[in-house]
């Protein structure tokens, strides 16, 4: 999947001296500082760095490619709109995941009220005036390459059957490799709660997987 920023918004009146301050740190911090100093290309760099991860997170949460593409578009629109006021209290990645989770939760609730056929029949060209163009990545999911087709399919089937809360924390921890501190910040709960919630999610997945994988 690739995302192209088509019509950027104006960024007037920002102090370009801000850009140099964070550029000795991570690439994300450097790009955020550059963007806040008025460099539009810095946002494109952030999108390129995170687009695949965001899309695959949305796909695992929403389970339909078109829903995931729509969600990815909305996530980066919200990111663009909020980035000028981002102050770095958390890492950019954690902040981005927070936006992604909020979008996926909202869209997941809406999708639950639609039939699966309706979700699959919708096309990505239905919405007009999009500031992003999204093309699904034809390459297989890395997890599919590691696990093999049958086990991967069974795992996906099991993930689709557990609760959204359990699926969410499993994807963030086991797939996206967020640590307990990041999960605590992202979910707004103590690390102890993260660990107990993760243990329950793993148990639910294991029990469900036993029913779909011989």
In which range does the helix fraction lie? 55-70%
Question: Architecture of the largest domain in CATH?
Answer: Orthogonal Bundle
Q: How big is the Rg?
A: 18 Å
First-to-last CA distance: 33 Å
What is this entry, summarized?
The protein has 214 residues and is mostly helical. It has helices spanning 27-36, 40-62, 65-82, 92-111, 116-121, 142-147, 149-161, 164-175, 180-187, 191-212; strands at 2-5, 132-135. 27% of the residues are buried.
Characterize the structure shown.
The protein is mostly helical. The chain has two domains: 1-139, Orthogonal Bundle (Rna Polymerase Sigma Factor, Chain: A); 140-214, Winged helix-like DNA-binding domain superfamily/Winged helix DNA-binding domain (Arc Repressor Mutant, subunit A). It is 64% helix and 4% strand. A two-stranded antiparallel ribbon has the order 1-2. Helix 7 crosses helix 10 (191-212). The two termini are 33 Å apart.
